[in-house]
Amino acid sequence: MVANNFAKRVQNPSFPEGAVIYRWLRGFLLLAPTFIVDRGEHPTRRPSIRVMLSLRAPFDIEFPNGSWLKTSAVMMSAEAQRRQIIAKDAGFALLDLAISTPEYATLASLMTGRSVLPLERGAFEALKPQLELAGAGTIAPEQVRTLRREVVHAIAGVYPEEAHYDPRVETALRVIQQRRLEDVTLKTIAEAVYLSPDRLRHLFREQVGCTVSNYARTAAVWKALSARSVGKQLTELAHEAGFYDYSHFNHVFQEMFGFCPGMTQTTANVRVIACT
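-> structure tokens emitted (276 positions)
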């Protein structure tokens, strides 16, 4: 168990001050000097494997049963729930790898029968310079793909294989990216790729690892974040992305990141960088 003073510290708003988020089609890499998230009575989990690392000091995770883990590196499955993450001046890195990605497939076998797997920090020592540069926002987006593959290799000892989607699923992904959230339904996407809704539902979940609606919500969050630089308020950006109200956007955002979208209003708090 960690010291009780953590309970007081996280009464402050959740924040990822100075964070950089690199995002791609089915995942993201978040780095922040300090990362504090308190989900209270609403513990969060994601349909992904998450690798969390500290570049400087250990961090603490609270689970729904009240137990705590102090660690410098950990991998958590899609079933794992987290109530709090407290990474104070830790140099925190979070790699989110969605279900059905090659990276997920490579790591999932290591998680058989468990939801939390502590890792040796030393396994990532060779990657520390690149992670430090990524945290400063100074590596090229195309280098992030190599970095995440190296993280997977450091854990599993092998590199993930390349993803190969059915052409109809690739088309569905593109169509979803192009449309506002409110215009995305299983029926309309199925029509666009000349499949029945039932066939698309099965094929999409099999290859992408989530439903069409789940993927569309995630894509809409990235659209809103990517448009921040035009100077509009998040409420307006959320509407333009197709969310029916701001609370809907706020809920989906917090499920993805664990902190409120208002923290991204200025680039001093959060920078978002698109990758391939």
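The longest helix spans residues 141-156.
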